[in-house]
Amino acid sequence: MDLKTCLKKMQLVGVLAFATVDKDGAPQIRNISAIHYESDALYFYTARGKNFCQELLEDGRVQILCYTKYKEMIRLSGKAYAVREEEQEKWRDTIFEEQPYLANVYPGNTRSIGIIFCIDQGEVEYFNLGVNPIFRETYSLGNAIIREKGYVITDACIGCGKCEKLCPQRCIERGTPYKINQQHCLHCGNCYENCPVQAIMRK
User: Fold this and answer.
1) What is the model's pLDDT at position 91?
2) pTM for this one?
3) Are 47 and 114 in contact (CB under 8 A)?
4) Per CATH, the architecture of 151-202 is what?
5) Per-residue pLDDT reduced to its tens digit, 18-51
6) Which residues, in sequence order, are bridge partners of residue 31?
7) What is the pLDDT of residues 114-146, one digit of tens each?
8) CB–CB of 152/114 below 8 Å?
9) How far apart (Å, rounded) are the C-alpha atoms in residues 151 and 185?
């Protein structure tokens, strides 16, 4: 798996869930399909009068989620920004051409009520529950720094093997100390909760 394939899978899913936070700190989720994909960016359309648009203009942080029929979860976490005024029409026309249904929603010149946003920096996490063991990996969109997640076994490990036996995905390998194979880890925390000497740390 790689970033390019993740973006292609998101495009094939079509409708993505976009999560933001409103001015009161409450989570808000919308389904968006007015999207155009480039190899290194994602462009999307929304109307200026929508709360969604105001949340993007005021803060910009957004998390996008899709789930394929193959039990693959792809999550993009980034910051959206309105593209430059001189490029708005170009990207708007591109999105309307690729999504013909939008002409029914915003006929004629009413499409000008919309703003095109871009995300070209962010983390893209791929998580496949349809294989055994599960598989996960994170990719950088643009120059975004990837934040490590999950758990790690420290040098305080006494090699008792309890974590290995309790891991639902069998992703813990013996060693000094034992090691978690991060690509197959669920991040469930079972090893963390059951380590007798608290040798496992949350990243």
Assistant:
1) 97
2) 0.90
3) yes
4) 2-Layer Sandwich (3.30)
5) 999 999 999 999 999 999 999 999 999 999 999 9
6) 17
7) 999 999 999 999 999 999 999 999 999 998 999
8) no
9) 9
